[in-house]
Specification:
Elements: E1 2-5, H1 11-25, H2 32-35, H3 39-52, E2 58-65, E3 68-80, E4 84-92, H4 101-116, E5 122-127, H5 131-139, E6 143-150, E7 159-166
Parallel strand pairs: 4-5
Antiparallel strand pairs: 1-2, 2-3, 3-4, 5-7, 6-7
Helix pairs in contact: 1-3
């Protein structure tokens, strides 16, 4: 497995993985009509902008397995003056779950954040209904520090969400990656 900074050549793979992950995990929060529709085209536009317009405030890392993108994480470094960098996306293909890819993507994200913004924390929002993700973040030292209604999401819909935070993201860095 190789972890590397995403490039424009990864746009289609990331968009496909993102769309598949949303369809699989976000039912009940996102509108079914949106998830049953052309989510891929929507995500393709987002990732085309993110990976072709230079922005030193964003960092996207991919997990590359023999030339196939099987996971990615996208972070916005200076998102919030209190909580720091926003881990806006963290997704792994369903068939590679529970193989350490999410942990490694978070480690690479933390490594980049500490290098670029050493005094910043890291946070993310997770849907309240996504209890497996909450268990994953708990196991990585995340602390639930707030609740609010998330959304409106693409295509409509809102859902209770939990803010997880790592005031010192160095806790996420796994040595030897």
């Amino acid at each position: 497995m190789e972890y590397r900074t995403a490039t424009p050549s990864d746009i289609e793979a990331i968009a496909g993985l993102h769309a598949e992950s949303w369809r699989r995990n976000y039912r009940g929060a996102f509108a079914d009509s949106y998830l049953d529709g052309d989510v891929y085209t929507d995500r393709l536009a987002v990732w085309r902008d993110r990976l072709t317009l230079p922005d030193s405030n964003n960092y996207t890392v991919v997990a590359d397995l023999d030339g196939v993108v099987v996971g990615f994480a996208h972070t916005i470094f200076d998102d919030d003056p209190t909580w720091g960098a926003l881990l806006d996306n963290l997704h792994a293909a369903h068939y590679v779950k529970r193989q350490g890819i999410g942990t490694s993507l978070m480690s690479e994200t933390a490594r980049a954040l500490v290098e670029e913004r050493p005094a910043r924390g890291l946070y993310l929002w997770v849907l309240e209904q996504n209890t497996p993700a909450q268990a994953f973040y708990d196991a990585r030292g995340g602390k639930a520090v707030g609740h609010e209604t998330g959304g409106p999401f693409p295509g409509g819909g809102t859902a209770p969400s939990i803010r997880y935070a790592w005031p010192d993201p160095r806790i996420l860095i796994v040595q030897g990656l």
